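Structure (tokenized):
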């Protein structure tokens, strides 16, 4: 089969590799129809993220069709349209038994990062995973939209489950690339009051306004904190950092007032920011963070799409066949892109 294999940073090669087979208990082979390029994929390929073991077939946001099942698989059969959760857990460790399977001590991941056990991912014509990582794809959700279940589940987990956004909350989203837009769309569906998008890209801000933001702020043209407090004199109820750069985290810290909840969502690099201890104490806000996903979050994301509350297809800006994946990676470097989908 054709696959994109990362041999070293900036060395992604299209190669003919053996097709996986479903041989062990619970294994399933999926023919990939659509797979999103995540920012973490881009960072791994470009060497921005260094926790990578080579060789690696990246890609962890797939949807597709089951083509082969191994022994013990009873919930899926060949021909079933499915959505794949990239992380697989053991089900027996303390974290799994207490509902935090994304902390699993014995986890594996397909094409992503985090666990030491990394399986080949979905920038390939076929991918092997376990049946417990699969969810049936509802017929009303396209393969493209379904490929964004994992990032949508992360947005739901961060905004609703962890930060506990309430109906009527005034929310600020810093960084409205693809994951920021999904956070924004979840907040909108959950009943946010005023919904402010902050980004240095006018292209991204236009997308945010089209996706339900009430206000858009470009910090390169105006003082972001001043403008937020002009819109929200009492300050925001929730601030979500979905951008990545350390400056975005610092802006989030600066935007707090008493009781503000804030979620460190976008930054994945090991950089430091400062907090005034006394100020943080007396503000009595709550800091959350969110990474990865779990079966609950995946199920909630599918439900949001199935009921028409969030349309992930709206944030897809580019499509490329697997044979042109290098063009897709280069698009990720441009300012005028949103979600890029690869079609093996």
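Design, position by position:
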């Amino acid at each position: 089969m054709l696959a994109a294999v990362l041999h070293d940073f900036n060395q992604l090669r299209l190669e003919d590799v053996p097709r996986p087979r479903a041989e062990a208990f619970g294994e399933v082979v999926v023919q990939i129809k659509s797979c999103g390029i995540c920012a973490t994929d881009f960072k791994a390929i470009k060497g921005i993220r260094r926790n990578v073991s080579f060789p690696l077939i990246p890609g962890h946001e797939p949807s597709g069709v089951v083509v082969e099942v191994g022994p013990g698989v009873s919930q899926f059969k060949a021909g079933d349209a499915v959505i794949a959760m990239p992380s697989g857990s053991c089900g027996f460790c303390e974290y799994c038994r207490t509902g935090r399977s994304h902390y699993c001590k014995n986890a594996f991941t397909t094409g992503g990062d985090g666990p030491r056990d990394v399986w080949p991912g979905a920038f390939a014509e076929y991918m092997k995973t376990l049946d417990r990582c699969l969810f049936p794809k509802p017929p009303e959700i396209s393969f493209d939209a379904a490929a964004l279940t994992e990032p949508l589940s992360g947005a739901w987990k961060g905004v609703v489950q962890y930060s506990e956004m309430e109906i009527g909350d005034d929310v600020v989203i810093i960084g409205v690339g693809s994951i920021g837009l999904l956070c924004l769309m979840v907040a909108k569906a959950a009943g946010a009051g005023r919904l402010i998008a902050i980004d240095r890209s006018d292209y991204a801000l236009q997308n945010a306004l089209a996706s339900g933001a009430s206000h858009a702020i470009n910090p390169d043209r105006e003082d972001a904190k001043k403008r937020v407090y002009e819109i929200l004199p009492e300050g925001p109820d929730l601030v979500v950092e979905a951008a990545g750069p350390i400056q975005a985290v610092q802006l989030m810290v600066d935007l707090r007032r008493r009781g503000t909840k804030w979620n460190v969502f976008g930054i994945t690099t090991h950089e430091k920011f400062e907090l005034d201890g006394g100020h943080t104490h007396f503000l009595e806000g709550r800091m959350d963070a969110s990474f990865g996903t779990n079966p609950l979050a995946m199920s909630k994301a599918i439900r949001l799409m199935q009921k028409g509350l969030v349309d992930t297809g709206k944030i897809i800006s580019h499509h490329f066949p697997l044979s042109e994946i290098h063009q897709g990676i280069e698009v990720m470097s441009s300012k005028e892109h949103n979600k890029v989908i690869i079609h093996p």
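Reviewer-requested clarification: The chain has two domains: 2-147+311-343, 152-289. The radius of gyration is 20 Å.
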